[in-house]
Amino acid sequence: MKASISLLQRASKHIDKYALYVPKDGVFPKGFKVASHATGVKKNGNLDLGIIRNVNTSRKASAAALFTTNKFKAAPVLVSKKVLQVTGGEGVDAIVVNSGCANAVTGDVGLKDAQEIADLVNAKLGKENATLVMSTGVIGQRLSMDKIVPAVSQQFEGAGNSNFKDDFESWLNLAKSICTTDTFPKLITSRFALPNGTEYTLTGIAKGAGMICPNMATLLGFIVTDLPITPDALKKMLRSAADRSFNCISVDGDMSTNDTISMIANGAVDTAVIDEAHEYFPQVQQQVTEFAQQLAQLVVRDGEGATKFVTVNVKNALHFADAKIIAESISNSMLVKTALYGQDANWGRILCAIGYAKLDNLQSLDVKKINVSFVATDNSEPRELKLVVDGVPQLDIDESRASEILALPDLEVLVDLGTGSEECQFWTCDISHEYVTINGDYRS
Amino acid sequence: MKASISLLQRASKHIDKYALYVPKDGVFPKGFKVASHATGVKKNGNLDLGIIRNVNTSRKASAAALFTTNKFKAAPVLVSKKVLQVTGGEGVDAIVVNSGCANAVTGDVGLKDAQEIADLVNAKLGKENATLVMSTGVIGQRLSMDKIVPAVSQQFEGAGNSNFKDDFESWLNLAKSICTTDTFPKLITSRFALPNGTEYTLTGIAKGAGMICPNMATLLGFIVTDLPITPDALKKMLRSAADRSFNCISVDGDMSTNDTISMIANGAVDTAVIDEAHEYFPQVQQQVTEFAQQLAQLVVRDGEGATKFVTVNVKNALHFADAKIIAESISNSMLVKTALYGQDANWGRILCAIGYAKLDNLQSLDVKKINVSFVATDNSEPRELKLVVDGVPQLDIDESRASEILALPDLEVLVDLGTGSEECQFWTCDISHEYVTINGDYRS
């Protein structure tokens, strides 16, 4: 009983994530406007509908998206997939998101509802196949169309579409409108210059916070930019960025029916269009990957009930796939995650999770070559605390230093396989009492 | 905060598992004797050393075992594996188990320690390669040989090995001596007759209670019987039984470094030796499988912090492997397990887990044919509450009946794939606040 109380007390010492991770201002790409609304689907009256519009008319926008691989794909996933297939990613001008209801496993009626929302926005835009739809929330319940449809219409009323804005507050509200169990809205912005001397802007929004698993989670994310780029190049870039960001995070190992990461590039900055062969393509890809990593990390930081942000760094593997599956196995282990929560230096569980990783190729794991350390991410010394050296467990580990590192809200688990030069970083969090509370009563 | 309190209150209403699942007496096979001892490895002074001996001398005993597939195999696993390789499973007369320390990831020194214990018992028995060793507890710490070695020796002192007994109390103490976070010792016994008119006895002992995952868990289990059977037939029988029992349970999805299920058949009942071709073999196999299922289910019932025992029954699959992986995916889902804890009829999470199961063959899953129900296991009606019928979610589910079923300590999740005739049953439990508490502070 004593342990229980001490852990609960520890969990109650919340970090003020809102203050830490929600920006006070930002830079936003040209030619995008947003609106959000509280339709009443969320019982608490919070914002639950958001619309992003491309209002640039100088050229057609490019869009790309990655969807869940879950076999029960939600209706909005099916509808959005079709839009991208039909258009080839050209001319998509709006994303409509609702939270509170996932419109998943709702059969034909759910598909009809999602299509109706897309059609409504298309009609308002005077275009066809120009709208992506996304939903997040409870599975298996029908959308409250009586609340959502009038709310969508209402956004397009008023002279000059005055409900759509591009100020910081409006973007932050958009980020709020897609939240479910998130404790803070996830909004990041960035400006970068290419060698042509021109600056472009990226804005990213995401929601977590449970069902987070490699190959995407109950994760909605979108990135918009004013860079001009072809649909094919955008798709390639998004796939690569997601493989190094949204596909490298874990909260609870569940993969949802609704996961969608999408990107719209409207080319509102009037420079030459970038394609895959363009000399700037690698640099843009790098920028977008780092940006996606920042956004994905925010999702882990807001993992349901999480008190810790942990980077699992697996390096010197013979194959990248092996490094990734080992990082994933550690990141998903319930026993590693609860030990991290309890600040228990039970590093044996880390080795255990490495040991049951389903390796494609055994060559990356040599139990005589493995090194495992905890690494502090503040400036304290010694930065690296070696737990296993060349396969030999260090039986005289400095437990007080281990406790210091484990008490940090940010820390790293470093695994050096010593068999090659490939590496993979994964981002994960601990599993707390609060996680159980949130997910035990989610629908209530 | 309200949800948190209500869930904690619910969790505190503990079922008295000890009274429900610990037998008051039992039947034990001829020719086995046991001893147990508190060596002081467990800080609380509880029993932490157990020895089973075959004392039948009419013929050589047969032994078989299945070990963890974790790549970091604990020292006792490596030592025991070698014993079975060298002997072909013939003439193994003792199993020594310690709890409190897993002797895993302890390198060469750990291997030496495990071998020393086996050698000590061999010397006491006056035999070679006759002892299996098992350990369970914290990973990465060295065995306290100063406590264990004298305690092992001590058991063999006294006239006529008087420390070894075959009464109910001694068997129950043996079951207690292998517990770690278990809340009750797991001991079952059974007597069955073959058509030859002779009765044979099975006694099974197991420990859980976390790190429980398909393909065995931090699970130690042994079954002893006085049936005469060849080592090869025993091995085949144990493999088949484990595939339908210990490999069909899930507590938290972690697989340990120490998992071992072993069986010794000493043939103390003097009838013809059974081999794979024997007419009674299928019947014996059936008996042992059902017995192993009972034992495996006890491990789930004592899942760390578990408040519910859930049978996941996937039927009418095209392939058995598909049925198993779908059952496993549901059984391991954190979101399904927390919803069960919260008694939340969030069946969408069940479909979600089915949807991300890594199917070998997609043919077993047709989203238009799937049926999902909650099934009550008491005598209340309607026994089956249909949630999804032929792929169509039932939007007017009787939520009060759903709540009644979810409030039961035992319930079934039934998935009918409607694509074939194969089926698989899995046994799982919920994930509670208590699970997090236990695993956050395990080493303390």
UniProtKB/TrEMBL annotation, chains A, B:
It catalyses: L-glutamate + acetyl-CoA = N-acetyl-L-glutamate + CoA + H(+); N(2)-acetyl-L-ornithine + L-glutamate = N-acetyl-L-glutamate + L-ornithine. Gene3D superfamilies: arginine biosynthesis bifunctional protein suprefamily (3.30.2330.10), ArgJ beta chain, C-terminal domain (3.10.20.340), L-amino peptidase D-ALA esterase/amidase (3.60.70.12). One of its GO terms (cellular component) is mitochondrial matrix. Pathway: Amino-acid biosynthesis; L-arginine biosynthesis; N(2)-acetyl-L-ornithine from L-glutamate: step 1/4; Amino-acid biosynthesis; L-arginine biosynthesis; L-ornithine and N-acetyl-L-glutamate from L-glutamate and N(2)-acetyl-L-ornithine (cyclic): step 1/1. Its EC number is 2.3.1.35, 2.3.1.1. It comes from the Eukaryota. Substrate binds at residues 180, 207, 218, 304, 439, 444. One of its GO terms (biological process) is ornithine biosynthetic process. GO terms for molecular function: L-glutamate N-acetyltransferase activity; L-glutamate N-acetyltransferase activity, acting on acetyl-L-ornithine as donor. CDD domains: OAT (cd02152). It is an enzyme of class 2 (transferase). The alpha and beta chains are autoproteolytically processed from a single precursor protein within the mitochondrion. The record marks 136-137 as: Involved in the stabilization of negative charge on the oxyanion by the formation of the oxyanion hole. The active site is at residue 218. The record marks 217-218 as: Cleavage. Belongs to the ArgJ family. Catalyzes two activities which are involved in the cyclic version of arginine biosynthesis: the synthesis of acetylglutamate from glutamate and acetyl-CoA, and of ornithine by transacetylation between acetylornithine and glutamate. This is Arginine biosynthesis bifunctional protein ArgJ, mitochondrial. It comes from Kluyveromyces marxianus (strain DMKU3-1042 / BCC 29191 / NBRC 104275).
